[in-house]
Amino acid sequence: MSDEPQTGQPLGAGPAPGGPVAGETWHRLHPLSPVVRSGRGVLAVLALIAISATQKLGSNGSHLPEIIVGVVAVIAAVINWLVTRWRLDGPTLRIETGLLRRDSRQLPVARIQAVDVVRPFLARAFGLAELRVRLAGSSHADGRLAYLPEAAALELRARLLAAHHGLDPATPEPDERVLATVPAGRLVGSVVLSSASLILLLMIAEVAIAVAVPAALEATGGMLVVWLIALGPLVWRRLATQYGFTLAESPDGIRIRRGLLGTVAETIPRRRIQAVRMVEPLLWRPLHWCRLEIDVAGSPGRDRAEGSRRLRKALLPVGSKDLAGQLMHTVLGADAPALRRPPRRARKKAPLSYHFLAAGHDAATAMAVTGRLRKITTWLPLEKAQSVRLVEGPVQRRLGLATVHVDAAGRDVRAEFRDRPGDEARRLVDELAALSRSARQGVSAWPAKPADA
Q: Taking the model in full, what pTM does it have?
């Protein structure tokens, strides 16, 4: 059989809707893929040309550098389309790309961890979607098909997941159960009450005052413009990326759909979840709102969410505390353990935050509450614990206190038993270490006695 792309149908058009997604023949991406890939760069170049023309910059009328950049972006996108092909070869999805350096990836269907569908704004306008395939043991997109017709992308995703679970490809995908949605009004309210929005409003007010007072405008105008340029996109990104947020439960994990101009549909397998955090900003507390986040194992790499290198993803951008507690139980499959406060002498070390400190654990979960202006409640499954450590600062030693950290994989993922009596802290270290070992072995029972120090 030839390795050349299939010629019985237009190469870029992909499979016909309702027809076979793949076979033992090579396929190319949709022929409009170069337009989508280079569209953002071309629009940026056109914007620069328009701005320079409006401001009468470059009086010679030469925009050659901008035009060259745009042409290079288009040529690179076309070359990428020409050298990229894919096929579903039995139990393996094969993706080949690269001009000077050929990259041939073979993705075993049995190791597929999640298949995400991403629709940037320009792709949605053309009815296209990007398929991102993640394998077990990996944290970023191991395979990308950008772009396919939307119907073909959804069909290929269903076939890959069906093959992964050993089902007939013709079997309909199991229904998902919607757990939560975020109304647009509540999302806008949460963004307005965020610190970035308040600073942005103050900057706008200051600009208005500066315009009325020319001397003030000359002194502070440049800095105000910089702040507006920095904070404006931040506020807009929060609205655009979390708009239409829907959280659902499916057999292969937790599914999140979100986006205003461009949409993202991603699946997070439960085994990748290291911890759940409920964040209560000061301005949200009168409304009993909170934000629920999950810490995901691994490094997001190129597939990072919302342009961030952090491993934290929003499980609920904004919602009630009762809903957050229900979602925590659904995601972790455990109830919140009873909490205990530090001794009263801990007030001398943390007079402002003492009122909010609490922690507790059971055989499966460690839970801790910290923070004053930004109250954070952390649930950490003990089976995910990587280490248990005891820390004593100079003030704590003087007061006979210590802090026990239960660390999970990832950056700053931990539950903290802050300012515990020294004897209790040492017992906690042994007890939590033993419970973590039991949880990893699937034993949900308390140890007969604490392990020896």
A: 0.80
